[in-house]
Amino acid sequence: MDEVYLRRLSRWQAEQQREEVADVYVAAYRAAAGSEYRDRTSFLRRFEQHVRHDGFDMVVADSPGVVGCAYGYRMERDGAWWADFPVEVTRQTEELTASGRVFVLTQLMVLPAHRHRGVATRLGDLLFSRHTQDLVVAGVDADRRAAGVGQLLRAWGWKALPASGPGAEESGREVWTRGPLR
Questions:
Q1: Rounded to an integer, what distance in angstroms lies between the CA atom of residue 30 and that of residue 19?
Q2: CA dihedral in degrees (83, 84, 90, 93; nearest 10)?
Q3: Which of 62, 105, 116, 166 could covalently link to 72 via disulfide, CB atoms 3.0 to 4.6 Å apart?
Q4: How remote is the C-alpha of 25 from its chain's centroid?
Q5: What is the pLDDT of residues 39-86, one digit of tens each?
Q6: What is the pTM of this model?
């Protein structure tokens, strides 16, 4: 198998490679037959919104062509991002949010043929190298858990926030965090 090279993309470069990244998304999550177009279109719509956020950061893995991707953005200071998730929030989380030190991991994907070769770990290492003083959060739904994302985050030393509130267990979503590295 070919060598995998990582590179960080600017916002402009990310927008230029959006179609190739969408192809990776569909292949990485193996959309149900017949739903590939809908899933791809939905991803592209979300990607367009994510790229516009201040602090957008993205890395891709090439071998040749994009075989993996990780991206996210810095959370706005003005909100309680956890309001959409049934989780307990600590005082430190509130303080880091208020100080603009929360980075949201929005996507992490690797083509099946390139999994179990350390590509996801290398993508994460490069992406998070700029965010060592940030609380990094990732929302993981049932589909992503089935794809092993929660296991990967646990292996990286992340922690799932405890679920709380009415309907917490039924929501099917988990929030994982990695605190500032010291």
A1: 16
A2: -90
A3: 105
A4: 12
A5: 889 999 999 999 999 899 999 999 989 999 999 998 877 666 776 666
A6: 0.85
Domain ranges of the chain: 5-178
Angle between helices 36-51 and 18-28 (to 10 degrees): 130
Q: Considering Cα of 179, then 115, then 51, then 44, what sign does the dihedral take? A: negative
* Of the candidates 62, 64, 176, the residue with the CA atom closest to the CA atom of residue 110: 62
Give residue-wise pLDDT tens across range 109-167.
Answer: 999 999 999 999 999 999 999 888 888 988 887 666 666 778 888 888 898 887 765 55
Distances (CA, A) of 114 to 4, 5, 110: 9, 12, 6
